[in-house]
């Protein structure tokens, strides 16, 4: 086996995995705290990319600098979606109804994106991207490396918030036992909205990073929802570290199978890993079941 | 019995004299033949939406011109107007076939094509079985033209013949390229083109190092590019669609994957591609099914230049080769109907078989299998130079000289 090619594949997998992790962490949070599979996750990712594009085109803001603005906008959108549609549907029916509601929301939001931006392929560029660099003979893609750095920073911030801020502790408490959290004075309704908001904000941030790496169009949303789902199953539900591990694992499976078996077969390996994980360790790598892992 | 007064009788007589005189001197008017409806589906949403919209704009422009500027068309002594009955298939073959079957049941005789061989192929099966004509500019997979279909026509040569011009170009390059690698995706169109390119290269003694296949939606080409770096070919060919081509080239730049010549079958033709890459796009070559610098006469619009002016006056969307090709589909239909002197589908089909015209898109002549004549309608080869596309081959159409080997990504600034 060619050593350089092996290490190149390893590095490519790590970088790809970092981006998968960031794009999945929001999905993981909602699943962990609310028990909802958010099918609008992919469109939140794309909304982040499109908002970054709009801010660059109208105000000249660099997409990486626009991350806080995009996060704020998507936080509001996510929280509103939860308060107005999802919460009502779940209260009146069951958790399953959230699947329909979030799927419907994703269709409406996708059409809204098409109305505003058109169906054409778009792309983002930033003056702040790290230059491509070498580690020995291994080449590290600057744009993707920037994505990985941003992903690690944002995931670190989320971990800090979950473990050191009051709202983070409230989210974890609600995830573990919402009834008991309520008895302690935590307003679960507010925490659910905040969780949905944070999830949408992180999806938006990942959208900007994805847009810097790959061209995007309004029809890519299902890809990112599916990716998030696989990442979460591999890494474990509800935790930033779980999302990170799941994303990295997914990235490595994808690049190694592409390099040494063939790119056409990477999905075979990814979904085989998913099945294996569901059979052997259904709670994911970190081993905590949903409702209790944040 | 009612009596007619003298005044009324005189009035009627006067009116009849004036009326008959007026009719004698009025220009001869063809009898109203009604409206000819073009049916079909198109991916105006879904993954092919960008090209789908380009095609729709081409159809609409031609219909608008025929109705509003020409006041309709006389066919076999009757004046016809045209109507576009295109519906959105969401780039989904299953949905497209349902929609096409419904239009066949409704009695539509003339179909325009969707985009993507995977969509057009099953739809062609339905229209052919019903004896309805389809003229399309969105698909070129061999399977469409090797089923023995009589009613299906395409403005592009079939995929396996699409590489004739390119292989001729490779023969002329100095120093002679010795090796080629090909990146394709897991789809009929991309794979067929990759096979045709590989076969053509082998025929002229260029070694094919690798044919690397990626999933149909490319988000990461790092493994394929690592292979390219470890065994660098003289020419790298990608037979991928626009979005995938952009993913690959951007990742090539980011990973300093340099090759003496990058040939992207689709992608560089789009302004968005060149805008995205800026100076880095310099040197990339591509097939040019159409280029604005090539002026052809057109029986409807006059010539290519007039077509471009009319399009730009009436549309905001940038012109693409698919748009011009879509307008040419309708021009071709109209010319075939005029030649047939009838709108009977069998007569129009025979006229299409024999058609030999030029349109704003270029010459239109079909092979006996219905695809575009590979010599007359074969693509030109273009290269991005100073942000613009120059035609570098065939020699007769040249607007620039091939740059080979091209500068590295770093040298392009």
Count of DSSP helices of chain B?
A: 13
SSE pattern of chain B: HEHEEHEHEHEHEHEHEHEHEEEHHHEEEE
**Amino-to-carboxy terminus distance of chain B:** 98 Å
How does the overall form of chain B come out from the CA principal axes? globular
CATH class of chain A: Mainly Alpha
CATH fold-level assignment of the largest domain in chain B: Rossmann fold
Explain the overall architecture.
The complex is a heterodimer of chains A (294) and B (413). The mean pLDDT of chain A is 89. Chain A has one domain: ABC transporter involved in vitamin B12 uptake, BtuC (Orthogonal Bundle). The longest helix of chain A has 32 residues. Chain A is globular. Chain A starts with a helix and ends in a 14-residue tail after the last helix. Chain A has 294 residues and is mostly helical. Chain A contains eleven helices and two strands. A two-stranded antiparallel sheet of chain A has the order 1-2. Chain B has 413 residues and is of the alpha/beta class. Chain B has two domains: 199 residues, Response regulator (Rossmann fold, 3-Layer(aba) Sandwich); 147 residues, Rossmann fold (3-Layer(aba) Sandwich), CATH 3.40.50.2300. Chain B contains 13 helices and 17 strands. Chain B has a six-stranded mixed sheet, sandwiched between helices. A four-stranded parallel sheet of chain B has the order 8-7-9-10, with helices on one face. Chain B has a three-stranded antiparallel sheet with strand order 11-16-17, with helices on one face. In chain B, a hairpin with a 3-residue loop joins strand 12 and strand 13. In chain B, helix 2 crosses helix 12, helix 3 packs parallel to helix 4 and helix 12 crosses helix 13. The longest helix of chain B is centred in the first third of the chain and has 21 residues. The relative contact order of chain B is 0.13. Classes of the chains: A mainly alpha (294), B alpha/beta (413). At the A-B interface, helix 1, helix 5 and helix 10 of A face helix 2, strand 8, helix 8 and helix 9 of B.
